[in-house]
Design a protein that fits this description.
By secondary structure, the protein is mostly helical. The protein contains four helices and no strands.
Length: about 120
């Protein structure tokens, strides 16, 4: 906080923080097609897990995995927006940064598929 800025109540700061975070989540799903694909996959996973009656531990693993994918997609989107703000001109460094972030999302998504297979295959066969 700036030295001469008026002090706000801590609860107001927390509420503002939540407001900004929720706005970011809204933006993620509204403007990021891949996030919507992840959301559809997550809904399918939740429905399948409910139908199959997975254990509590398996639910915890699935929920954590789903939110890890969403979080990584959000970080990738944030990095892309920031990189585009820095420069719209071609830059190999910006290209590499965007590719690395996209690669991180892909790695987490592959890991999520593996987690899903490990959990669901015994129930299906």
């Amino acid at each position: 906080m700036k030295p001469n800025a008026p002090k706000t109540h801590p609860l107001k700061r927390v509420i503002k923080s939540f407001h900004y975070a929720l706005r970011g989540i809204w933006e993620l799903f509204l403007y990021t097609p891949n996030a919507r694909i992840h959301l559809l996959c997550a809904i399918a996973v939740v429905i399948l897990a409910a139908i199959l009656g997975v254990s509590k531990v398996e639910w915890l693993i699935l929920v954590l995995t789903i939110f890890l994918v969403f979080s990584m997609e959000a970080m990738n989107s944030a990095l892309e927006k920031l990189a585009d703000r820095v420069s719209l001109e071609y830059s190999p460094l910006i290209r590499d940064a965007k590719d690395l972030a996209a690669g991180a999302v892909l790695l987490v998504a592959i890991g999520a598929v593996i987690v899903g297979l490990i959990i669901f295959i015994p129930y299906l066969f």
